[in-house]
């Protein structure tokens, strides 16, 4: 049974000028017309769903007609409600009531004003940082009056704040993080090596990088002088740095403090006889690698690290173990850092070492620390000489020639023949001239 009545089709045909259409023709056309109407309505419903509209409107019907290359409906897209009235001949048929307009009235309506042409107008926003008081600029009011509403408690309490978006990890990522952190903290060498190799080579762990950096920071902070754990954490940190797929520079604010703690920490192990010197050297090399790799992007990173080392060297109450790490750090940062920060304070620092180096010093731990500081001081000074092309380099450096001569004389007086292995044959004459 058709949903459309024959009377509907006959009225539509009459509106199109087909008055003599027969009943048999109407019966033949009725199924075809119903099919076309159903197709248009179904397409319109699709447009409604895809546009997330709560109900069907004439816009969706027009879009369905355009998709089928049919003429759109006119006069039904107005926002106002459409009034329908029943036909006089049939009470079951309705038509949209439309207001009749006089063409003469429409033609006699005066034309509206022509819109202005776009123009470009210039004015000063500020002159020497001061906003001029002109009509084009808004008036500058006192901050207390401008922001009264913001400071109002009633205003602040009714502000809708969106909750922070939580970083969701998959179960595989969570399991990987758990296994790697457990391996880093374990004593199983093979398991730890496999975990560190994965950190250094796996390109798919970028989502876990903030968690690993936080893990290293927290474990160093609460290591309780566990030397083996600190070594494992520094190895994990190095693996993150060498992984080319990771953007470690975003998390240097957590990694650098942890590494500097291993360089300058007062006590890194329970037994002072343990080899915490190797840990300080390893961590100082990591800091130098970070400064070299990210120094161009973060211009102040090496300056801040050098300032930290310099503060440890010049502090008269700083323990020698901390100063040992600072000396190693300056050595790895290069000759310019040693010229500007180490050598000007060398004489004062060496005078502090002398009492601790005496055999009469009853503090054996302090004597051992002072001997290690003396050894790295000799090595740093000799490395600086071996890195220099000639001693004339000092004339263009931050040190004057006379100051450099005094330093060389002081080094030879303090270290003597210990510096000779670091000096190349072409430097012997200039070195002797400075010493004499």
UniProtKB/TrEMBL annotation:
Keyword Nucleus assigned: yes
InterPro entries membership: ARM-type_fold (IPR016024), Histone-fold (IPR009072), TAF6 (IPR037796), TAF6_C (IPR011442), TAF6_C_sf (IPR046344), TAF_TATA-bd_Histone-like_dom (IPR004823)
Record-linked SMART domains: TAF (SM00803)
Record-annotated TATA box binding protein associated factor (TAF) histone-like fold domain positions: 3-68
One Pfam family hit: TAF6_C
MF GO annotations: protein heterodimerization activity; RNA polymerase II general transcription initiation factor activity; transcription coactivator activity
Compartment(s): Nucleus
A GO term from the CC aspect: SLIK (SAGA-like) complex
Superkingdom field: Eukaryota
Keywords: Nucleus, Transcription, Transcription regulation
UniProt record, GO biological process: RNA polymerase II preinitiation complex assembly
SUPFAM superfamilies the UniProt entry points to: ARM repeat (SSF48371), Histone-fold (SSF47113)
PANTHER family according to UniProt: TRANSCRIPTION INITIATION FACTOR TFIID SUBUNIT 6
Similarity remark: Belongs to the TAF6 family.
Protein name, entry field: TATA box binding protein associated factor (TAF) histone-like fold domain-containing protein
Upper lineage: Eukaryota, Sar, Stramenopiles, Oomycota, Peronosporomycetes
């Amino acid at each position: 049974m058709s949903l459309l009545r024959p009377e509907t089709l006959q009225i539509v045909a009459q509106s199109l000028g087909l008055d003599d259409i027969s009943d048999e023709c109407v019966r033949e056309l009725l199924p075809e017309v119903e099919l076309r109407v159903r197709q248009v309505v179904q397409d319109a419903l699709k447009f409604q769903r895809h546009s997330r509209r709560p109900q069907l409107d004439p816009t969706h019907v027009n879009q369905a007609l355009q998709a089928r290359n049919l003429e759109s409906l006119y006069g039904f897209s107005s926002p106002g409600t459409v009034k329908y009235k029943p036909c006089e001949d049939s009470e079951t048929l309705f038509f949209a009531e439309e207001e009749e307009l006089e063409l003469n009235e429409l033609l006699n309506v005066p034309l509206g004003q022509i819109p202005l042409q776009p123009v470009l107008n210039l004015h000063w926003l500020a002159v020497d940082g001061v906003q001029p008081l002109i009509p084009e600029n808004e008036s500058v009011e006192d901050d207390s009056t401008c922001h009264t509403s913001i400071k109002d408690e009633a205003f602040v309490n009714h502000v809708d704040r969106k909750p922070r978006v939580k970083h969701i990890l998959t179960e595989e990522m969570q399991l990987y993080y758990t296994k790697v952190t457990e391996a880093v903290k374990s004593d199983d060498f093979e398991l730890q090596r496999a975990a560190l190799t994965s950190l250094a080579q796996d390109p798919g762990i970028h989502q876990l990088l903030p968690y690993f950096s936080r893990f290293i920071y927290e474990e160093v902070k609460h290591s309780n002088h566990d030397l083996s754990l600190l070594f494992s954490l520094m190895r994990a940190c190095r693996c993150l740095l060498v992984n080319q797929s990771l953007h470690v520079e975003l998390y240097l604010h957590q990694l650098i403090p942890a590494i500097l703690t291993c360089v300058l920490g007062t006590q890194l192990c329970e037994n002072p006889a343990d080899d915490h010197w190797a840990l300080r050297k390893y961590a100082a090399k990591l800091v130098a690698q970070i400064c070299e790799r990210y120094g161009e992007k973060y211009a102040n990173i090496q300056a801040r690290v050098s300032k930290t080392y310099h503060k440890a060297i010049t502090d008269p109450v700083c323990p020698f173990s901390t100063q040992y790490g600072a000396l190693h750090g300056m050595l790895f940062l290069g000759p310019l850092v040693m010229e500007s920060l180490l050598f000007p304070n060398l004489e004062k620092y060496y005078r502090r070492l002398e009492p601790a180096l005496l055999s009469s010093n009853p503090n054996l731990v302090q004597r051992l620390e002072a001997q290690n500081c003396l050894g790295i001081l000799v090595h740093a000074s000799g490395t600086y000489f071996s890195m220099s092309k000639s001693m004339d380099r000092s004339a263009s450096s931050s040190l004057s020639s006379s100051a450099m001569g005094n330093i060389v004389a002081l080094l030879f007086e303090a270290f003597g023949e210990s510096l000779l292995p670091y000096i190349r044959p072409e430097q012997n004459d200039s070195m002797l001239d400075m010493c004499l």
